[in-house]
Protein: DUF2155 domain-containing protein
Organism: Antarcticimicrobium luteum
Amino acid sequence: MPAAILTLVLAAPLAAQNNEAKSGSGAVLRGLDKVNGETRDIDIARGETGSVFGLDLALADCRYPAENPTGDAFAYLTIWEHGTEQAMFDGWMIASSPALNALDHSRYDIWVLRCITP
């Protein structure tokens, strides 16, 4: 049942705006090291992999509302620690609701700021 609720929550704003989503060429992400409070922003192109702190990040897609490119961003990310193959996060992150589907890591936080648009 929670998956159905999540689907409704995600679909409602898009349906209410009655517009399409477009894919950006990449995404701007922010990483936080919770131990020392340091933040870093990283630009990742769609289909590319980047790294911040001790994490590798792969961006599959970044979507945004076609009529409001700065309104929100939905990024599909796969995140894993350096030197490991098992993903610790694999799914959509939403810029306007970072806690809705967040990375669960004891030291680092990653969230989406925006899509890179033309």
In short: Residues 2-17 form the longest helix (16 residues). The helical segments are 2-17. The first strand starts at residue 21 and ends at 23. DSSP finds one helix and eight strands in the chain.
